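For this section, I looked closely at the sequence of one protein beside the C-alpha cells encoding its backbone, which the following lines show:
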Amino acid sequence: MARTYRDGGASVLPRVGVSVLLAATAALYLWKLSASGWANAFYSAAGQAGGTDWTAMLFGSSDGANAITVDKTPAALWVIDVSVRIFGLNPWSVLAPQALMGVAAVGLLYLAVGRVAGPGAGLLAGTVMALTPAAALIFRYNNPDALLVLLLVGAAYWVQRACEKDAGRWWLIGAGVAVGFGFLAKMLQAFLVLPGFAVAYLATGQRGLRRRLGDLLLAALALAVSAGWYLALVELWPASSRPYIGGSQHNSIVELTLGYNGFGRLTGDEPGGLGNLNHDVGWGRLFGAGMGLDIAWLLPAGAICAAAGLLISRRAPRTDPARTALMLWGGWLFVTAVVFSFANGIVHAYYTVALAPAIGACVGIGVTLLWRNRSDIRAATALSGAVLVTTVLAAVLLARNAEWIPWLRAIVAVAGVGAAALLLVAGRMTRTAAQAVAALAMAACLAAPAAYSIATAVTPHSGAVPSVGPSRHGGFAGPAGLLNAPTPAAAVTNAVAADADRYTWAAATVGSNNAAGYQLAGGVPVMAVGGFNGTDPAPTLQQFQAFVAAKQIHYFISGRMMPGPGTHTSGSREAAAIAEWVQEQFTPVTVEGVVLYDLTQTPRNS
C-alpha cells in the first residue's frame, strides 16, 4: 500500500536531525558572509537604487534615476530592495536574504522527500543539496538563482501534495503560482521543471484523468497570470516614463523574455550578448572543466537512484507517493540537465544550482528504497555501483585542483571502494554492521563535495560569474570592467559625488558593472550606458547629447570598453558612439588613474 509519512516529524529524533541540518546549513551559508563585499555589484547597485526609489524597485533599474533596468525580471531584486529599505545598504542586507532562502529551500526539500520516503530520506536529500558546491556559492551570493531555486522547490512540494489522496486542486494551483513567480526571478529557466511536474501529476494523481487534465489547465492559468501580469504591466507602461528594458534591443520585456533570456540561450542567437559559450556543448559538459566542480559530484548517483527507485516501485499502486516523487524530481533532473548540456548560448556554471534539489531528492528517495531492499542482490549492486561511481568521480574532480588537500582523494577513493564492496553483502550483515557500512558509504560520498562547499563558502567572491572552490578567487578573469566592478579611489569617488544633487546622474560610463562600482562607492546615480554588455541602444547618441545639453549628467567616466560595441556583429554600437563623441568634444582629466570628462563644460564643436 502507498505510504505517506505525514507523521514522520512527530518523534524526537527526526526533529533533532532536521534542526541540526538547518542549523548547519545556516552556518555554512551565513559564515563571514560580508567577506564578499558587494559580490555581484551589478545587482547590489540595483538593490541600492530600488531601496531608495519606488520606480527603480518596480522595474529593477540599475540606478535611482531610472536610465535602464537590469537584464532580468526583478523579483529577486525586490527581496534585496526590501532588505535594504529595512536594514540599510550594506553587504549583509544584500546577501543575507539569499542565505536564508537557501536554508528555507533545504527545509522544504526535507519536507517534500521526508513526506514520501521518511525523515531519514529527507535528511539525506537536504544534506546533499546543502553540500552541493554550486549551492554553497549561490546561496551566499546575490544572483537571482537563489529565489528561483526556493520557489521551484516549493512548487515541487505542492505538486507532491496535489497528488495525495483527498488533496484539493489548490495545491497544484499554488505550484503554478510559485513557478510563475520563479519566472519573475529568472524568466524561462523556471519552466524547465514543468515537464516533470506535469508527467508526475498526470501519471500518479489521485483524481480521474479528466479532472487531472482540468487541474493542470487551471495550474497553467495560475502560472500565466502570476508571470504575465508583470510583462503586461511593463509593456503597457508608457516607455517615456519608465527605464529602458536592459538586455533588449527594442525596449521590450517580451523581446528580453524570448530572446536574450529565452530561446537565445538555447540557440546562441542572442543580440547584444557576449557570444556563444558552446565550446563544451554535449553530455560531458556537466562533468567538464566548466561545470563539473559545481554540480557533478552526486549527479550520477542521482540518476542511478532515480532509475533504480522507479524500477523497484514499478509494481506499486499507480498513486504510490515515492514513485510520484521520483517521476517529479527525476523529470526535473533530466530536462534541466539536458538543456544545460546542449544550450548553445550563454550558460554559466553556477546555473547548475538548479539541479541540486533534484539530485538531493533522487538520492534521498532512491537510496532509501534500495537500502530497504538490500537483501536483493540487484538493489545491493545498484547501491554499490552508485557509491563506487560517486567516489571515483570525486577523486577525478579533486585531481583538477591537485594541490588542495591532496590526501582527501586517496581517503575518498579507498573508503568508497571499500564501502562499495561491503554494500554487496550488506543484506546478510547484522543491523549494526549494516548501519556502519551505510555510514561509511555516506561519508565517502559526501566528504569531497562537503569539503569543496566549505572551501567555496570561506572564499570571497565577486563579479557576475563567481566560481566554486578555493583556487579561483573572484570568478571569471575577464576583461576589466566586463564582469567585475571597479573599486574607485577616494579621490575619484569624491569627485563624482561632488554636487551630485544638482544632476540627474552624477556620472555616466559604458557598461553596468563599470557604473555599479562608482554608484556603490559614491551612493549617487550613475548611468550605465549600453546596459550590462554595453550593447543596448540606451541611450542613443542623440538622447545622450540631449541629456548633456540639459546639464543632467556631470561626468563621463572612461573605462575599458565592452567587447560588444567594437567587435560584435549583433547589438547596438550606440555606447561606442557616445564614448567617441565624448572624447572628441570634452577635455579629459585624470584622477588617480581614472579619466573623467566634465560634461557641464562647453563642447568643442558647439
